[in-house]
Design brief:
alpha+beta; four-stranded antiparallel β-sheet
Amino acid sequence: MVVMKRALEKVIREDLHEVWSLLSGEEKRLVIDNFEIHNFKKNQVIYGADEEPEYLWALLKGKVKKYKDGVGGRVQILRLIRPVQYFGYRAFFAGERYVSSAGTLEPSTLGTVPLSLVNELIKNNNQLAMFFIHELSRNLGSSDTRIVNLTQKHIRGRLAEALIVLKDNYGYEEDNVTLRIYLAREDLANLSNMTTSNAIRTLSCFVNEKIIIVDGRKIKIINESALRKISKFG
């Protein structure tokens, strides 16, 4: 048990160091005692809309999407989560059930802390409270920008922006051109707020314009400046 706790503390200290550094010794002990690690398969639901929020989720390894089911079975990807980011807590502080769902894009490892404990820690730790205020504020700003972009940009601009979001979140493989995430065309369309057929056609246009190379689910960005220009003025 002691060995397991030490291993768990190492994971928390190294992966969640930004929050770890804000905690007192007693607070760290409480987090270790209540921290759990979960392994999810690809395309597995982490939590669903209308569920009660119970945990602060931290993505330790892998890729996660937050999404919402829309009209006619359409799905909209709201946000992509990368290691190490926290999610699943907004609804708790708002006194609501979840309004969106979260699921994995690939096999992923996540950690949880009960939100009831997080709430108690925040009451007695101003620095921790400011950390979550900062996170919520950044996410709100990103959401506002994304709403404008998805409603005002044309299809080319929306898809270009989606590819840039993937690059900025997950980066490139070692070749420095291949996106380090392999999305199904449907997921790429859901991220761009368009139909799958439109996403496929627009990808083909980008290929013909020598902006990207598509190899199955692998996408190589060979002219990032052109892609960013399309995203900006799309």
